[in-house]
């Protein structure tokens, strides 16, 4: 019991801090739209209002399924994504504390290192961003550990650990897929030299096959059900455009003139700022290749993933890669023996990295840094989302509401459930739009000139609905951006 007490304490503290941070972020409007969409889809799926095809082809798959299950078993009003995020980060903190103790750190040093890493600004940002990004951090940690294990003993369990970690990365976040793509050509540098003398190709195939097989299968399902195989990677390109705008606001024309290279440079700079213990520890062990190789692979892999994401536009923005410095620092502290001989200096470096993590976030997530600055000045980041949530609150107790929840997922959050909403996946919505005829008890439309209203399917089908209403319906609710009509 005495051994378990520090672990339970650190897990509980991390859990509570994440809940508080999530509450503050939600109040300030700092929660990303991807997290809102994930939660809305989870509510819809748990209410059995989502077609099975969309459930099977949902991406990111692992966070979506986990959030859906948690939403199904949780009472209405409980934020399943926040609960899941807090549990994942608390589990990471517990694992790190145990690994630090096994590495020979004293209890006080292990607790201090765990707090500095688990509550690192980059990981707190990931926690605010929702389950997908914090799960990305978890699988990146598993891959980092597995690369050290496979360097020491390349048996079947170690090979499968690397393969499964890459599979988890791919289906946890679009940037996880970019990390996996970047990792494939670099895996040879993490393997033992004697293995390279044999059949390298067979080993690489064994490492990559589970991910490749699942990607092909998932692409086929995505093609069969929603209608286009790679559609699950296209949506994040909007986030990349926003990231590029924020980056240009911060650095002007950029660091090198080529945005993809600038993204890779930003990752390297963020590592130096947010985890100085990593390059310094690598310098201490530069002659010990088994300890240096995996760390270098992780760094180069992350830089390459940032460049690939920006160059292709398929994997979203590189901001999610900000979790790499604290993750790699945790692995270095646990796996590099020389660390325990210079413990005081290492703890000081972790503290410096915690402070530098803020600067690292500014480089990798300039848009988020601007939003935080606005929130600290008392401004509201997303009034449009607040209006959609208020509309959702107004629909409570009403059923048969025709509304485009795909373009405004916050409506589902405000209502607390999807049952009673007729979304684009319902036949009533499809028939109404196709035949330009509305027969539902209620219809909700946003201002066609503001944000999501431009993309709203009902506004496109009925261009004057928001302004003039429709015969047989009366206005029963309105706010800054939304109007709700009821049938007479």
TrEMBL record:
Keyword Protease: no
Keyword Magnesium assigned: no
Bilayer-spanning residue ranges: 78-98, 105-122, 160-189, 195-218, 263-286, 291-312, 318-336, 343-364
Keywords, alphabetical: Membrane, Transmembrane, Transmembrane helix
Domain of life: Bacteria
Protein name from the UniProt record: Glycosyltransferase RgtA/B/C/D-like domain-containing protein
């Amino acid at each position: 019991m005495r051994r378990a007490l520090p672990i339970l304490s650190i897990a509980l503290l991390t859990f509570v801090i994440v809940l508080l941070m999530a509450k503050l972020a939600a109040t300030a409007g700092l929660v990303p739209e991807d997290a809102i969409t994930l939660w809305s889809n989870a509510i819809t799926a748990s209410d059995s209002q989502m077609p099975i095809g969309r459930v099977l082809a949902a991406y990111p798959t692992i966070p979506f399924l986990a959030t859906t299950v948690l939403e199904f078993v949780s009472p209405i009003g409980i934020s399943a994504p926040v609960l899941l995020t807090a549990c994942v980060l608390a589990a990471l903190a517990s694992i790190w504390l145990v690994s630090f103790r096994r590495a020979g750190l004293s209890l006080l040093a292990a607790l201090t290192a765990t707090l500095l890493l688990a509550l690192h600004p980059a990981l707190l940002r990931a926690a605010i961003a929702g389950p997908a990004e914090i799960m990305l951090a978890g699988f990146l940690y598993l891959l980092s550990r597995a690369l050290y294990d496979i360097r020491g003993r390349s048996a079947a369990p170690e090979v499968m650990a690397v393969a499964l970690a890459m599979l988890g990365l791919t289906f946890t976040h679009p940037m996880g897929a970019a990390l996996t793509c970047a990792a494939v050509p670099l895996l040879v540098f993490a393997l033992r030299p004697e293995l390279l003398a044999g059949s390298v190709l067979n080993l690489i195939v064994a490492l990559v096959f589970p991910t490749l097989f699942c990607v092909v299968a998932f692409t086929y399902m995505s093609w069969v059900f929603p209608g286009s195989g790679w559609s699950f990677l296209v949506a994040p390109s909007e986030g990349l455009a926003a990231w590029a705008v924020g980056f240009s606001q911060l650095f002007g024309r950029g660091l090198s003139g080529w945005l993809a290279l600038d993204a890779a440079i930003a990752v390297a700079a963020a590592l130096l700022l947010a985890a100085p213990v990593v390059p310094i520890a690598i310098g201490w062990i530069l002659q010990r290749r088994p300890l240096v190789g995996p760390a270098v692979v992780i760094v180069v892999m992350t830089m390459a993933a940032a460049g690939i994401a920006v160059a292709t536009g398929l994997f979203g923005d590189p901001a999610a890669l900000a979790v790499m410095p604290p993750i790699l620092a945790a692995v270095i502290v646990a796996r590099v023996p020389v660390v325990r001989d210079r413990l005081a200096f290492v703890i000081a470096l972790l503290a410096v990295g915690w402070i530098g993590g803020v600067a690292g976030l500014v480089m990798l997530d300039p848009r988020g840094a601007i939003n935080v600055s606005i929130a600290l000045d008392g401004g509201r980041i997303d009034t449009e989302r607040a209006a959609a949530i208020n509309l959702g609150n107004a629909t409570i107790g009403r059923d048969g509401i025709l509304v485009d929840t795909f373009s405004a997922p916050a409506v589902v959050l405000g209502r607390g459930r999807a049952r009673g909403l007729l979304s684009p996946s319902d036949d009533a919505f499809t028939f109404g739009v196709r035949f330009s005829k509305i027969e539902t008890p209620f219809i909700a439309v946003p201002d066609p000139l503001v944000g999501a209203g431009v993309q709203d399917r009902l506004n496109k089908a009925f261009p004057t609905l928001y302004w003039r209403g429709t015969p047989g319906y009366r206005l029963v609710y309105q706010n800054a951006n939304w109007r709700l009509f009821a049938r007479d």
